[in-house]
Design brief:
This protein has 225 residues and is of the alpha/beta class. 40% of the residues lie in helices and 22% in strands. It contains eight helices and seven strands, in the order H-H-H-H-E-H-E-H-E-E-H-E-H-E-E.
Length: 225
């Protein structure tokens, strides 16, 4: 199934050589522990590659552009990381960025730490804690995939983690569902945009939703853990 991964990466426009070996090692770790940890909802490798690995990397170019103008090493958080998606594939593809995988469940956090060690991925670290208890104002970009539907409470918790000028990058599906979610939080949002992110070999809508807080959010000290 390496051909599907390699071909998919090529279709996304990436240089496959530097990342292919680590991505295959990561897939092997998921397959090894999925029966006991229920990391992903598939046992078939082709589906795992398409729906999880390529899906995680489909917005790579957009994310790279978002953090391109950072003066220092960008710090990116994957909130509710679970199996490490999209954080680990992005960390593999973006070695010049720092990643924090935020995961509240102990068994999954242990899996993530062991996986980072097995992959030899020095630019990523795991924090085992709930989003609401994480230190504030640290991240230039926060991404999440299959996390929770956006609500005022969730958005408030995410915004408090952003550094000044930071944005959210939410992995979402159909455009009409995105519009409904954003309608529920529009009073908290400075701006938002849903950018189509087709996934190779997947005939389903995928978007990356870029969300910027209102200029007054977050304000230092306004949101307490």
């Amino acid at each position: 199934m390496e051909g599907v991964l390699e071909e998919g990466l090529a279709l996304l426009g990436g240089n496959t050589a530097p990342v292919l070996s680590r991505l295959n090692a990561y897939i092997a770790e998921i397959e090894r522990f999925n029966p006991t940890l229920s990391l992903v909802g598939t046992t078939e490798r082709r589906e795992l590659v398409i729906r999880h690995i390529l899906d995680s990397l489909a917005p790579l170019g957009i994310i790279q552009r978002l953090i391109h103008e950072q003066g220092s090493i960008p710090h990116i958080a994957d909130v509710g990381s679970g199996a490490g998606l999209p954080g680990i594939p992005l960390a593999i593809a973006m070695p010049d960025c720092r990643f924090t995988l935020l995961e509240r469940k102990t068994r999954r956090a242990v899996f993530l730490r062991n996986t980072l060690e097995a992959l030899g991925l020095p630019n990523a670290a795991v924090e085992e804690r709930e989003m609401e208890k994480a230190p504030r104002f640290r991240f230039d970009l926060i991404t999440f995939r299959a996390f929770r539907p956006l609500s005022p409470a969730i958005l408030k918790g995410l915004f408090r983690l952003l550094a000044p000028g930071g944005v959210l990058a939410a992995y979402k599906g159909r455009e009409e569902k995105i519009a409904a979610e954003m309608g529920a939080v529009r009073d908290m949002v400075g701006s938002w945009e849903a950018i189509p992110c087709p996934v190779p070999f997947l005939d389903e809508e995928r978007h990356l939703v870029i969300i910027a807080p209102l200029p007054s959010l977050p304000v230092h000290g306004k949101f307490s853990p």
